[in-house]
Amino acid sequence: MHTNRRDLLLAGASVASTALFWSVAARLRAEEFNAPPETTTIRLGKRPSICIAPQYVVSDLLNAEGFTNVVYVEADAGGTQAKALANGDLDFTLHFSGPLLLEIDRGLSITVLAGIHVGCYELFAKKDIRSIADLKGRTVGIPGLGTSPHVFLSAMATFVGLNPAKDIEWVTSASVKPIELFADGKIDAFLGFPPEPQRLRAQNISHVIVNSAQDRPWSQYFCCMLAGSREFVRKNPIATKRVVRAMLRATDLCVSEPAVVAQRMVDRGFAPRHDDAVQTLADVPYNRWRDYDPEDTIRFYALRLREAGMLKSSPAKIIADGADWRFLNDVRRELGG
């Protein structure tokens, strides 16, 4: 009876206020589980994209799991964050699946543990561009080669028969963001991650040719996945399971308590604007982690990136080298997934 009430309170029930909700999380204690975590410190990544909302509201749930020191470390959205995991500068982070696979292919010590959400990116283009195939010979803005927009757009281009290295003119800019170049009409297309799509729509600059939350096949695979330092996962299995459990509970909260989550993100400085946070939580499907198989995501993107010449390993090798689903399977049984 106690376990059912706890899971109801933490994973699905509606609560009256922010104070009530987070007091429920605080009542969870480490002694409710079989053993305490091997460490009480967890380091998570922090980056501008706010689609990783579960990571930004998970700290109270981690505290309830026995972690007394939850630290957020600044990291970008590309290979640097993956390298920080492999180097032991981060313990866990939610990260885009494509860049994770590239770094695992390069031999970095990263372990993918779970799929978190589906479909947070949108491909914006000028009005005469109606499909991904129309990007042939056009300019596409990205922060840099190897960044998440570059990796995902390369996979998308390959899927429709383009050669991303030859058929697309990549425009990299460190000083001016691609969203600004697009809004000024200086590039033909760019891939936006929250809060960029929400802001463009608010400005009525919203010609979207792919919405990965809605359009197949992209809507059938995870965008963001939970990954950990392989060494941390190996040495700290109890702590790892607790992190997986807390992160998936936080993901459920993005569905059941979006207003509370949005306010929490703003209050803690993870989202600069409340309206962007609210809209992101409405736009991104956070309710699919129980339904989709994260291994399918790895297979799909590994094949696309291999076709693009960006990845050498087979999907089976990437999965063998860089994935561990034991913790996810345990937590799914606990949480009814």
Detailed description of the structure:
By secondary structure, this protein is α/β, with parallel strands linked by helices. It has two domains: 2-118 and 221-335, Periplasmic binding protein-like II (D-Maltodextrin-Binding Protein, domain 2, 3-Layer(aba) Sandwich); 122-211, D-Maltodextrin-Binding Protein, domain 2. The chain has helices spanning 2-11, 18-27, 53-56, 59-64, 79-86, 97-105, 148-159, 164-167, 178-183, 196-202, 230-235, 237-256, 258-267, 274-283, 294-307, 315-322, 326-335, and strands spanning 41-46, 69-74, 92-96, 110-118, 122-125, 139-142, 169-172, 189-192, 208-211, 222-229. Helix 6 packs across helix 15 and helix 7 (148-159) packs across helix 15. The protein starts with a helix and ends with a helix.
Mean pLDDT equals 84
Order of helices and strands: HHEHHEHEHEEEHHEHEHEEHHHHHHH
Please tally the β strands and state the result: 10
- The appropriate CATH architecture of the largest domain is 3-Layer(aba) Sandwich
Major sheet: order of its strands?
7-6-8-5-9
How many discrete domains? 2
Instruction: Note the total helix count.
Output: 17
State the end-to-end distance.
19 Å
Quote the CATH topology of the largest domain.
Answer: D-Maltodextrin-Binding Protein, domain 2
Structural class: alpha/beta
Global morphology: globular
Low-pLDDT segments: 1-32
Percentage of β-strand residues: 15-25%
The oligomerization state is single chain
| CATH homology superfamily name of the largest domain | Periplasmic binding protein-like II
Write down the CATH class of the largest domain.
Answer: Alpha Beta
Largest sheet: 5 strands, mixed
CA radius of gyration is: 20 Å
Helix content: 40-55%
